[in-house]
Specification:
- By secondary structure, this protein is of the alpha+beta class.
- It has four helices and ten strands, in the order E-H-H-E-E-E-E-E-E-H-H-E-E-E.
- Helix 1 runs antiparallel to helix 2.
- It starts with a strand and ends with a strand.
- The mean pLDDT is 86.
């Protein structure tokens, strides 16, 4: 199954391109008016390289599939985690159209710290992957549809008081905590 890509760059950070493109436009326009033998070519080349570097630096995506979740981008943490049975993907809708994505689970690590262990199972679930994405409820809908949630249940998941339902490979629970909608996708099977 194809992975789902979620945009994780800050759009307001791209305002940095405006001064660079303005200087590039002015340098190209007034290049013929300069009498020096190099003209404004070094400035033009520098501006083009700065714009390309900014695009490469700002390029950040999160890739989510049934097998793994990871950051994509040259200047990201490149953090990744495997998605398999028993793990839980948590999506929290925050203010200002931000979304927190976390993967919780236990990969067989038994910690030596007492407060991380539980009496029943030996080791508690820990946060394996943490990321922030930008977008509104549409991103959460795309993630839910990617994991096989029925379109008829989306209104109840995003707007209802609480929701819990099992699907073919996942179990989805949704509730509101401190004014934020929190959606948990628990993986029942390894696909």
């Amino acid at each position: 199954m194809k992975p789902l890509y979620i945009f994780a760059s800050r759009l307001r950070a791209l305002w940095v391109l405006l001064p660079m493109s303005t200087v590039l436009t002015l340098a190209i326009r007034y290049n013929s008016a300069v009498d020096h033998w190099m003209k404004l070519y070094p400035l033009i080349i520098f501006c083009i390289c700065a714009i390309i570097f900014t695009f490469v630096y700002m390029y950040r995506f999160i890739s989510i599939s049934y097998s793994e979740i990871k950051y994509i981008g040259r200047f990201t943490s490149r953090d990744s985690a495997t998605v398999n049975e028993g793990k839980t993907l948590s999506i929290e809708l925050l203010e200002k159209k931000r979304i927190s994505i976390q993967l919780h689970g236990n990969e067989g690590y038994n910690p030596d710290i007492k407060w991380l262990t539980t009496d029943e199972e030996g080791a508690a679930d820990i946060c394996i992957f943490r990321a922030r994405a930008y977008g509104s409820e549409n991103v959460a809908v795309r993630i839910l549809c990617h994991f096989g949630v029925d379109a008829s249940d989306l209104d109840a998941i995003l707007g209802g008081e609480s929701f819990e339902k099992s699907y073919e490979n996942v179990t989805v629970t949704s509730l509101t905590i401190d004014g934020h909608r929190q959606i948990k996708i628990h993986f029942d099977k390894t696909v």
